[in-house]
Specification:
This protein is α/β, with parallel strands linked by helices. The chain folds into two domains: about 150 residues, Rossmann fold (3-Layer(aba) Sandwich), CATH 3.40.50; about 100 residues, ProC C-terminal domain-like (ProC C-terminal domain-like fold, Orthogonal Bundle), CATH 1.10.3730.10. About 55% of the residues lie in helices and about 15% in strands. The chain has an eight-stranded mixed β-sheet, sandwiched between helices. Helix 7 crosses helix 12 and helix 8 packs across helix 9. The longest helix has 22 residues. It binds NADP nicotinamide-adenine-dinucleotide phosphate (NAP). The site of NADP nicotinamide-adenine-dinucleotide phosphate has 27 residues, from helix 1 and helix 4.
Length: about 260
């Protein structure tokens, strides 16, 4: 199998690293297309590097499009000229729909995926939807590749990618915000920054693993930490008064609405 990655920034580079790390491809089976020469050094050894979309991309089984959405138009012309009918085009661009990709690239076998930032260390989650023209074999190939960057989830309905974008695409930023706020609170209460950092990060890590192993819902785990008249209960009274759950739901709803807006504009 041969794969081309067009756009080797954060995500394109992460994909190349994962494919090589898990032995899915050899260096001579990976075509890396960059725009500026200063990317070359960090990609050296991962695959064959070129600065334009050419016939080598046209010879690949799968082409991953990992440029920013605003760069699509520039790349589309060159790509449309080399894509063959039996190639799969996998786009990870936020907000660019399958029909739009099919139109600008003049290509039918298209997959649209929404990864998230932890894909950069092989711990991401990617949801993807496929155009009707994809064969079962092609879908399996795509899922295997996406799994090498963490986990992959197939969506029957492409429109759910807006909810995915809001939940797991933007999700790492919500998590970082909560972590930062807790660290700030610790420092406000007199803890040294490095102590507050260590306490919060290890608490997040440990709580995640407890949730994974405990076979209980987050709701049940909250009850297990909280005792009547205790400290957690005092904190939760404030969270309930400020409607933290509602705030998060509204924030995620706003992200979903914005994703819909971007994909229909
Ligand atoms: N980062 C995330 O967490 C995340 C999550 C979900 C989806 N995505 C999607 O993933 C895509 C890439 O995001 P990113 O964070 O990896 O962005 P990025 O770091 O800016 O990478 C984009 C890369 O595309 C290159 N590029 C632009 N035009 C090109 C062309 N004509 N030929 C070859 N390369 C070209 C850029 O080159 P230069 O180096 O010259 O600028 C840059 O290296 C976006 O569409 C985004 O919506 C990202």
């Amino acid at each position: 199998m041969k794969i081309a990655i067009v756009g080797c920034g954060n995500m394109g580079h992460a994909y190349a690293r994962s494919f090589r790390k898990y032995g899915l491809l050899g260096a001579d089976e990976l075509e890396l297309v960059i725009r500026s020469e200063d990317r070359r050094a960090q990609l050296e050894g991962l695959g064959r590097i070129s600065t334009s979309v050419g016939t080598t991309v046209g010879a690949c089984d799968l082409v991953i499009l990992a440029v920013k959405p605003q760069d699509l138009q520039t790349v589309a012309k060159d790509l449309a000229a080399v894509l063959r009918d039996d190639q799969v085009l996998l786009s990870i661009m936020a907000g660019i729909t399958i029909p739009r990709l099919q139109e600008v690239l003049k290509h039918r076998t298209v997959v649209r995926a929404m990864p998230n930032a932890p894909a950069q260390i092989g711990m991401g989650i990617t949801a993807y939807a496929t155009g009707a023209e994809l064969s079962m074999l092609q879908t399996v190939m795509v899922e295997q590749l996406l799994n090498s960057t963490g986990r992959a989830v197939h969506l029957e309905d492409e429109s759910h990618l807006d909810a995915v974008t809001a939940l797991s695409g933007s999700g790492p930023a919500y998590f970082f915000k909560i972590v930062q706020s807790m660290i700030d609170a610790g420092m406000e209460l007199g803890l040294a920054p490095h102590v507050a950092n260590a306490l919060v990060k290890q608490t997040m890590l440990g709580s995640y693993h407890l949730m994974e192993h405990a076979d209980r819902s987050p709701e049940e785990l909250i009850k297990a930490v909280m005792s009547k008249g205790g400290t957690t209960e005092a904190a939760f009274k404030v969270l309930a008064n400020e409607d933290l759950g509602g705030v998060l739901q509204r924030a995620i709803g706003a992200a979903c609405a914005r994703s819909t807006e971007l994909s229909t504009s």
